[in-house]
Write a structure and sequence with these properties.
about 425 residues, alpha/beta, seven-stranded parallel beta sheet, six-stranded parallel beta sheet, 17 helices, 13 strands, about 45% helix, elongated
């Protein structure tokens, strides 16, 4: 076990994640790196093995060790009963609360989650964890909550988007976890308002914006491909890339000179390929797979505009605070997006980029065309982006809020000065 850092009062936080690492979850990677820079000691507890096949280069900078809590199997179950005994789980009302909570979940999920929660509890105690923090109010939060009931260790959860907005979100489960947590952290004011109005109105909800690393932006348009449209994200319905393809068809028909590069992978990949073919855009639109962030950053230095045409999904899901927009601002890359979720908290339309109505390919095409064609507009937006990123999304400024949430779990930590 490493020595406790005096800078943060020896704060040791266990990160509970469904799967670590994941190529799409750069915000978690950035958060862990930022916390470690401030002296917080992190242990990572992953409920699944990674399966992306490719990883970001910054992963090598993470000091935290990752423990993989294996799925249910015979020896694992026996060891869980040992943990049950050693943790004195049967005493008090923790076990009764845990079983009542598990009964609300699908029957096939109950035993695996109970076993993993017991192992998480054992690891948290054995590693002298002061606080547990889960990302997403789904399986990771459920498991952290159970471990809290078994050990008394405080916990918090960052709620993002799919775990808030989907029609399938269980309000009772969300509310129980939120009320038991030190705090629910969420990534934008739009999320906080939605949680209070639709899910739980008497829990502590803290807005901590995702932070990004601030590098030297590229503000010289002569160093960019003058007609390159860039889009980066998972290929899922809420990202609205079907609207982008329609807009590209409109731009082509207008005679606009452009190339569009779409980086990402997901459930909509085949559908988008087919749509590209129907629109005869194969020579204008390139669809790459998921790509490590270093390559994405290189494209951000080359592109003229980043487009994130987010929409409300048919399942109620929507974006909250797309990290790619934060990264684009920091890189001096103007953006075109829609006023979904917390996006208006990132982009002041007309300043760092342009916002248009969702599901409107004509408006999207008009906005893209303006950014491609109007040099003065481009320069103003490119210059304004890094200023906004530094003011609101600098991870070195945002993370102290998160550290304060963690510290509130322990009287010992509250006496320490970070």
């Amino acid at each position: 076990m490493s020595q406790r850092s005096p800078e943060t009062g020896g704060l040791r936080v266990g990160y509970v994640l469904k799967k670590y690492p994941r190529l799409s979850e750069t915000f978690i990677l950035d958060e862990i790196l930022g916390l470690e820079e401030r002296g917080v000691e992190i242990e990572i507890f992953s409920l699944r093995l990674p399966d992306d096949g490719r990883f970001h280069a910054e992963l090598a900078q993470v000091k935290a060790k990752a423990a993989y809590i294996t799925p249910v199997w015979t020896l694992n179950v026996f060891e869980a009963f040992t943990a049950f005994r050693d943790l004195n789980v049967g005493r008090g009302d923790g076990l009764a609360l845990a079983l009542a909570f598990l009964e609300r979940l699908p029957s096939e999920d109950r035993a695996p989650m109970l076993v993993q929660a017991l192992h998480l509890a054992e690891l948290a105690v054995g590693n002298s964890i002061d606080h547990l923090h889960a990302h997403f109010m789904t399986v990771a939060a459920h498991t952290a909550y159970l471990a809290h009931l078994f050990t008394g260790i405080g916990f918090s959860v960052t709620a993002h988007a799919k775990d808030i907005y989907r029609a399938t979100v269980d309000r009772e489960i969300f509310s129980e976890i939120a009320r038991a947590a030190t705090a629910v952290v969420t990534v934008c004011e739009a999320n906080r308002a939605f949680i209070a109005e639709n899910l739980v109105d008497d829990a502590r909800v803290e807005v901590v914006y995702n932070g990004v690393r601030l590098d030297e932006p590229s503000l010289d348009p002569s160093l960019r491909d003058a007609n390159l449209i860039l889009a980066v994200g998972r290929l899922v319905e809420k990202k609205g890339y079907h609207v982008l393809l329609e807009a590209c068809g409109i731009l082509r028909d207008r005679g606009t000179d452009f190339q569009c590069l779409l980086i990402g992978d997901g459930d909509e990949h085949q559908r988008l390929l087919e749509q590209r073919g129907r629109l005869a855009l194969d020579d204008r639109v390139q669809i790459l797979g998921a790509t490590p962030r270093d390559d994405v950053f290189r494209w951000m230095k080359r592109a003229r505009v980043l487009v994130a045409p987010c929409v409300n999904g048919s399942d109620g899901n929507q974006d909250a605070l797309p990290t790619v927009l934060l990264e684009a601002l920091a890189a001096g890359l103007p953006v075109v997006s829609t006023p979904i979720g917390g996006i208006p908290e990132i982009v002041d339309s007309g300043k760092q980029g342009l916002l248009v109505a969702p599901e409107d390919p004509v408006a999207l095409a008009d906005a893209i065309e303006r950014v491609l064609a109007e040099q003065d507009l481009w320069q103003r937006m490119a210059s304004a982006g890094p200023v906004k990123a530094a003011a609101r999304f600098d991870r070195s400024k945002n993370l102290p809020q998160l550290i304060e949430v963690f510290r509130k779990s322990s009287p010992r930590l509250l006496e320490a000065v970070p």
